[in-house]
Amino acid sequence: MLEWIIVLPLLGFLINGLFGSIFPKSIVGWLGTAFVFGSFVATCFLFRDLLTSLPGEGSVYLRVFTFLNVGNFHVDIAFQFDRLSAIMALIITGIGTLIHLYSISYMADDAGLYKFFSFLNLFIFNMLVLVLGSNFMMMFFGWEGVGLCSYLLIGFWYKNVSFGKAARKAFIMNRIGDLGLLMGLFLIYQNFGSFEYTEVFAKVGRLEVGTEICTAIALLLFIGAMGKSAQIPLFTWLPDAMAGPTPVSALIHAATMVTAGIYLVVRCEAIYALAPFAREVIMWIGLATSLMAALIGLKQNDIKKVLAYSTVSQLGFMFIALGCGAYTAALFHVITHAFFKALLFLGAGSVIHGMHHEQDIRQMGGLRKKMPITYLTFLIGTLAITGFPMLSGFFSKDEIFTAILSHNRLVFILGLLSAFITVFYTFRMFFVTFHGTYRNHHHSFEKVHESPLLMTLPLLILAVLSVIGGAVNFPNYMGEGISGGLHHLLSFDGGGRFSPILIFPEQSFEISHAQEWLLAALTPLFLTIFVVVRNKYLVKAAVPEADADQVGLGKVLANKFYVDESYDRSFVEPIELVSDTLTEYVDEKAFKSSFDGIGRANQYFGSLLSRVQNGNIEYYLVYMVVGLCLLLAFNLF
Amino acid sequence: MEVIIIPFIACLCVSILGKRNNIWLSTLFSSLPLFFVYQYFQHLDSSGKWISLFDHAWISDKIRFTLAFDGLTGLMLILTNMLVPLIILAGIRNDENQVKLTALTLFMQAALNGVFMAHDGLMFYIFWELALIPIYFITLTMSGKQAFKITLRFFLYTFVGSLAMLASLIYLFLHTADHSFDFESLRAVELNLNQSIGVGAGILLAFLVKIPILPFHSWQADTYTEAPASGSMLLGGIMLKMGLYGILRWYFPLAPESIAFFQPWIIGLSVAGVLYGAIIALRQKDMKRLVAFSSLSHVALIAAGFFTLSAEGIEGGLLQMFVHGVNVVGLFLVIEIIERSTGTRVLGELGGLAKNNRICMVFFMLVALGTMAVPFTNGFPGEFLLLKSLYAYNHNLALLAGLTIIFSAVYILRMVQFSMFGEGKKAMSPLSWNEILAFVILAVGIVGIGFMPQIIIDMVHKSVLIIATWISEANGILS
Amino acid sequence: MNLPIPFLILSFLTILSALYVVTSKSPVHSVLALIFTFFTISAHYVLLNAQFLAVVNLIVYAGAIMVLFLFVLMLLNLSKEIEPIKSNAWAIAATISAGSILLMITAAFQVFGEAVAKNPVEGIGLVKALGNVLFTRFLVPFELTGILFLAAMVGAVLLGKREKKPTELSTNETINP
Amino acid sequence: MSSLTIFNQLEISHYIYLSTVLFSIGLFGVLFRRNAIILLMCIELMLNAVNLLFVAFSSYMGDSDGQIFVFFIMVVAAAEAAVGLAILVLVYRNTRKTDVSVLDNLKG
User: Fold this and answer.
1) Which of D34, D101, D108 lies nearest to residue A613, judging by beta carbons?
2) Which residue of A184, A541, B18, B341 has the lowest C-beta tally within 10 Å?
3) Nearest-CA distance from A165 to chain B in Å?
4) Is D78 on the interface with A (CB under 8 A)?
5) DSSP letter string over A432-477?
6) Candidate from A77-86, A476-485, B144-153, B190-199 with smallest mean pLDDT
7) To probe the interface with D, which of C3, C10, C20, C22 has the most D CB atoms within 10 Å?
8) Do A140 and B375 touch (CB under 8 A)?
9) How far apart are the C-alpha atoms of D1 and B457, rounded to whole Å?
10) A612 CB near a chain D CB, below 8 Å?
């Protein structure tokens, strides 16, 4: 069963990639979807088996073949299906299926449809390799593979030069992270002599808390996570990645790939548990990312950009949770975030589709009447992401804040601030898009239409999931029987060959009643902000200013804190300068000229010597006599 | 012996037939040696030692014409005899140069096979120089403005290096017990540290120039750029590997005592070269030049890996040698096709070629991925092992060298972007069958090795073990 | 040192005439002086009991070669030509060179030449003795010299032959006046 | 006074000095003069100096080989003079000069 999960998307990639151009368009999309759905079904069955018929084992292991065996270095192509990878695989194939389905209709007009679906399938394959691999090498394969697919899909509309630039930026930023990850892997192999999770973590388990090696590995791996999960300082690629088709943004840049960093940290919990300093770093970086992205999100006018910054911000939350040691909470948020962010992106895609590829929310307005299903589902998504009580986002955020509160008060306050800002900009986007009056002059309001069933169906499914997603891990106060599902799943120890995912028992985040009350008091605050936003954008029907009209802090925010510009100044331009200098001066002048200089010196001495050969016999005679003299003298003395 | 004679005869036939020669037939003949290489592999026993294939008294009874074969040689022979047919196949052009280029390429194939099989020091030197002759004329074929000057520089550079090697070999020869150039006799010479360093420096110089390692590289970029496509492919795909092969096959066994002396220098220079080539490649406009500098960067990493003296470094390096050959030939092939149909290979003047020619685009992407060392393409396992070996040697150097994975992504993607994507400025003509065939074979190589690099590792593993034993014996350590 | 008077006189004359050959401005005078030198050398041969060579020397050198020289001089009408005198620097260079060679060869003989034992054999310089050696041990070289001579003769004739095309000559003249 | 008695009073070194001096004079001429005919004559002079030495050694050592060599040298000298003069005539025809310094076409 495990092999089918992985092989099916690969097959889909190969079939669509090689023969897609000769298939009719209608088949291509369904074919691609079918393969992912098959993979999803296989995952479900295997997951069921894992929970029921394989209680003692804890995981399914599949070794395919030896990839490399050099000296002491041995690594297999091998897969491991345990509870953590099962959850990730379910998200990937599940959400993946929905998004494939959505894309059939969304991308129907595109000439490169088969290409699109083959890339999507390739992405699913790589993502599955990432989460199902049984060793760090496999993870790295998937890690780079999804980066590649992300590149291919962001630059899907290759004729647009700026899209191509965004794609390259994404790939290169990811590569920077990958270098850190790679160094981390080397360090792991050097110290533990293996890449297999089970062996490495078994050896890690014998170390003490605060071991330097663990801290170093943890930090290096986190650099990789920074790149993939768009944390400061490697976050700038994600908003640019919105250049890709919207389903891509939903699948890759919201629901799955960007959460690979969280998966990495959760997977290496054994290491991070021993590296409190690294966790502290993760927490602060997550917090900074969350705040910064939320602030930038305040002033974005591109519907996808707003969502992108909100994704960055939410990822920041997940890392805060990881930093506090709340792995379950982080993973929980990954799941719920996958639901509602995919929903929001697909909804945005629906809007863009209905608006004939208009993405600027200032050009929209009043769409509620024209696209009721999209409106409704988008509203659910918005409520979920803002943490409206009893929706999925509420539970996962709640858990994160519980963890933060018991860890660090300052972080709690700042994180809360970030969450408030989330409410602000999400509703701002929502109101400006769907309420008020229609503001576009190019397309008449009549032409705006609701999306077809193929697109609204995934929206509806995701909306339902966004509502009930909290059931995955209800907090304790919901009752003993139904609460903490995810937590139990991850801490499960069957005593078999594989130890549980969370080797070190997660610290429980018990909070006092006062603190519970504090948390409960947050809801009115949320509502207050909601009212403020509603008042400004719905009642007063304010329209955001153009970027050029921004002043003061607004200008800084609209320009994304000038991060891209400062990166250009501090990294890109110096390197280009160095490159030019090396080309022009060092390579041409120094190296080549020095070699040519040797040649020229030889030529010069040659021309000096050639004067001796002046063709005049008298001189030759003198030379001969002198030579004879020297010869005799040499023999005599 | 067959693998030298067949291309040589084919070369003569092509020269005699002139314009009537058939490109498919030449391709067939140049790929025939692969069959014999397969047969040689059947003769190998489990010890991994060299087996003698041909042995005949030559200049004297002691200086013999000896050809031998082992896994290492086998790998290089496969590389050579796989790439040369592709180079010939892809080199179809309807002008007078075609015959000349084909004949010279076949001659080159014979000489290269000789280099890799020579078991006698003098023979090695002679084949080494013999390989220089055809490439000299190939490079001169497309007489660009500066071709003569550049070719002369290339020739002199490599020639001076080889002379140093000859001097070292002769020095060893004079110290052999039986006055023989045979590999085993040369290896049996006991040298003290200073002698070893002197001999090693001479041998190494020839190889470092050929590879080329940082201060000796200034012939490379110009030569690659000016040479016709088949010349660039031969140079980048196979000839560079002569230097790396030489280090393993001749330098390590003949002067093992000096390795410790040269190790930090070579690794330092190599890592510098990795960064240097990569940084320069970032801003190149001429695609061939870009590939030349990227090749400088990649090959330097292999040299660094060799000198870490670890199994990962050496075997990973060998893997990467093979892979780099495939990738460089692929890149030059694409560039040649682009240049042939659009008349330019300058990045600013190209763009949007993906629209006309999807197959070319797919293949280009594939080679680009291989060059960037994306997992499941051929570039990854080798680069991973090399960086790993370097990491074990020195963390900081590995980090510096590791920057190449970022830089390579930058310059390769830049090249793909500005040639293939964006708005079309130029149009590409459709591919011919021979080009598609070459693409398919290379693509199979790229993906196949990406999934199963162990095949190549197994091929060379035993030979590398033997060399490693020699090194550790000479240095009194057992690793 | 007690040297025999005839040797001294002969040597003196030899060197004097040789110097005149070198220094004389007129080629004809040089030739005549050279012939005289050959005579004195022949006389030396007689002193050394090499009678056959003394005669041959006269016949070949004085009789044949020098006549050739004279013929050429007359043919080219060079007797009047005053060759351009070389600069003093050249004179000094030539003197130094020749002097150092003299010094070197003398020194060389000082080192190596003293060991020769005097062992005169009666009559080796006569025709009979020389002919015996020449036609037995040196037969092949002797025949070869004959061929050499023939070749030289053919060569000389071929070179000296006047060109058939006078126009070519005139163009050459304009090129090299 | 027969030649034999004079011969008995002579040492080999006398002839060595004499022929060396002669040789040097010839060499001086070759270096100093520019007229090709004089040059050829100086060469003859040098050859004769060598001949003289050959004969002297031959007589002293009682070995006739030396005289045979002189014989051969004469042959060669005659051939050389013949060819040399023929070339000279040719040169003169072309250049109207016998000055060797004119003939410098073989510049490096």
Assistant:
1) D108
2) B18
3) 8
4) no
5) HHHSS----SSS-GGG--PPPHHHHHHHHHHHHHHHHGGGGGB-GG
6) A476-485
7) C22
8) yes
9) 101
10) yes
Provide the pLDDT confidence category of residue C177 given band limits of 50, 70 and 90.
very low
What are residue B131's phi and psi, to 5 degrees? -70, -20
Three-class SS state of A59? strand
Cβ density class A75-112: b for 16+ within 10 Å, e for less: bbbbbbbbbbbbbbbbbbbbbbbbbbbbbbbbbeeeeb
CA separation for the pair A28, B184 (Å, rounded): 63
**How far apart are alpha carbons D40 and C31 in whole angstroms?**
11
pLDDT on residue B145: 66
Do residue A625 and residue C101 have CB atoms under 8 angstroms apart? yes
Residue A491 CB: number of other CB atoms within 10 A? Answer: 17
Query: Is residue A231 within 8 Å of A286, Cβ to Cβ?
Result: yes
Amino acid code (one letter) for B230? S
Neighbours of chain A (3+ CB pairs under 8 A): B, C, D
Domain regions of chain B by residue span: 273-479
Structural contact between residues A148 and A59, judged by C-beta atoms closer than 8 angstroms: no
* Cα atoms in the Cβ-side hemisphere of radius 13 Å centred on C95: 9
The H-or-E segment that residue B57 falls in is strand B51-57
Interface test with A, best of D20, D25, D31, D88 (most A CBs within 10 A): D31
Helix (H) or strand (E) holding B52: strand B51-57
Instruction: Determine contact, residues D50/C41, Cβ cutoff 8 Å.
Output: no
Residue C174 confidence class, pLDDT cut points 50, 70, 90: very low
Residue C143 confidence (pLDDT) = 92
Domains parsed from chain D with CATH numbers: 36-100 (1.10.287.3510)
Decide if D29 contacts C91 (C-beta within 8 A): no
User: C41 touching D, CB under 8 A?
Assistant: yes
Rounded (10°) CA dihedral A571, A573, A579, A580: -170
- Best of C102, C104, C176 to disrupt the A interface by mutation (most A CBs within 10 Å)? C104
Interface subset of C 105-144, CB within 8 angstroms of D: 105-106, 109, 113-114, 116-121, 124-125, 129-130, 133-134, 138, 141
Q: How confident is the model at residue A159 (pLDDT cuts 50, 70, 90)?
A: confident
Write the single-letter amino acid at A380.
I
b/e per residue, D58-93, with b = 16+ CB within 10 A? bbbbeebebbbbbbbbbbebbbbbbbbbbbbbebbe
Q: Which helix (H) or strand (E) holds B397?
A: helix B395-420
Q: Does C44 touch chain D (CB under 8 A)?
A: yes
Residue B453 has pLDDT above 80, yes or no: yes
Closest-CA residue in chain D for A609?
A: D108
CA D33 – CA D26 distance, rounded (Å):
10
**pLDDT on residue A504:** 58
Contact: C94, D16; criterion CB under 8 Å: no
**Residue, of C6 and B372, whose pLDDT is higher:** B372
B115, B128 contact by CB (below 8 A): yes
pLDDT in tens, A466-512: 988 888 777 766 666 666 677 777 766 544 444 455 555 555 566 66
Chain B: touching chains (3 or more CB pairs < 8 Å): A
User: Across the interface, do C104 and A632 touch by the CB < 8 Å criterion?
Assistant: yes
Tell whether C111 is within 8 A of chain A (Cβ). Answer: yes
Angle of helix A161-192 relative to helix A197-204, nearest 10 degrees, comes to 60
Distance from CA of D7 to the nearest CA of A (A): 30
Could you tell me which residues come within 8 angstroms of residue B183 by beta carbon, excluding any fewer than 6 positions away?
A: B50, B66, B68, B119, B120, B121, B253
